[in-house]
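Tutorial, part two.
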Amino acid sequence: MRRNWIFRATRFTARIMLAPFFRLDIRGKEHLPPRGAFVLLPKHQRWADIPLVSVAVLKPLYYVARDDLFDGSVKNWFMRSLGGIPLNRRRPLETRESLRALEAYLQKGEGVVVFPEGTYYVNEMGPGRVGMVRFVLSRFSLPFIPVGIRYSKRRVRTLVRIDFGEARYPDPGISPILFLSSIMEEIEKLSEIR
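Running the prediction step on this input gives:
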């Protein structure tokens, strides 16, 4: 369970530590719902995406992340305190507790971040992994928000444009694969991947 004071303190620290290296250009914040659950689907370019998305969104978020980031009792406690939800892709049955927690967070109206590519793809689009999108679609009708992330090296600091796209609601009966495919196209446009 996220501990908001740890989340806020870490986000504040990240903002200060990242400022000498990155300058943020945030667009489309009006597409973020002021209340209620939503799923952010950002482009995954590099490690910095996670803290930069956190800085760009004022609301505390939950993040679906690979389970090896939670190895060890201290790391596990810290990652969960930040809102981390571990996902074991190799042994999905071990993820049942995490999926129940994810479901509970969405029921409470929380925002959740899922990187649909699952890992880094620098300046190119990786394939969308449909598992988490399918899971959420099978239980909720809520907005999915594509997020473009683009890095441009500028002298000392790198300019990072984070572009929140318009919320997408699934049409009744649409397959999760087609729904994710249309969102991946939007993420590609927002990230200006050529």
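The first strand starts at residue 22 and ends at 27. In part three we will examine how such features are distributed along the chain.
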